[in-house]
Amino acid sequence: MLHSTQRWQQIESLFHECLALPEESRLSFLREQCGDDRELCAEVKALLASAGEPMDFLEKPVVHAAQEFTSASSAGLLSAGTLLGRYEIVSFIGSGGMGQVYLARDTQLSRKVAVKILAPALALDERGLHRFEKEARAASALNHPNILTIYEFGNANGLQYIASEYVEGPTLRHKLDAGLLTPSAAIDIAIQIARALDAAHVSGIVHRDIKPENVVIRADNLVKVVDFGIAKPSQSQSQQGIYPPSRALSVSISHAGVVVGSARYMSPEQARGQPVDPRSDIFSLGVVLYEMVCGKCPFDGETVSDVIAEILKGTPQCLTEILPDVPLELQKIVSKAMAKDREARYQCAQEMLADLGEFASRLHFEARFSTRPPAEAPAKSGITATTSPRAQLVRPARLSIAFALLVLAIVGGVFAIFFRRPGAAGTQARPRTLAILPFRNLRQDPSLDYLGFSLSDAVITELSSVNGLIVRPSSSIYAYRNQAIDPQKAGQELNVGTLLTGGFIKDGDDLRITAQLIDLKPNRILWRDTIDVKFDKLLTVQDRVSREIVKGLELNLSPAADRSAGAADPQAYEDYLRGIDLYSINDFPAAIAMLEKSAALNPNYASTWAHLGKAYSANATLQLGGRELYDKAQAAYEKAITLDPNLVEPRIYMANMLTDTGRVEQAIPLLRTALQTTPNNAEVHWELGYAYRFAGMLQESVSECERARQLDPRVKISSSEINAYLYLGEYAKFLQSLPSLDAAYVVFYRGLAEYYLKRAQQAAQDFNRAYELKPDLVQAKIGKALGDSIAGRRDAALALLHQTQDEMEDRGVGDAETMYKIAQAYAVLGDKPAALHALSHTVEGGFFCSSCFATDPLLAGIRSEPEFQRLSNDAQQRRNQFRSAFF
Amino acid sequence: MEMPLDRPAMTQLLRQWGSGDKAALDELMPIVYNQLHKLASRCMRAERPDNTLRATALVHEAYLRLIDSEVDWQDRVHFFAVSARLLRRILVDHAKANHRSKRGGGAEKIPLDEAVLVGPQSPTGLLELDLALEHLAAQDKRKSEIVELLCFGGLTYDETAAALHISPATVHRELQMARAWLHRELSRGTA
Question: Does residue A51 sit at the B interface (CB-CB below 8 Å)?
Answer without folding.
Answer: yes
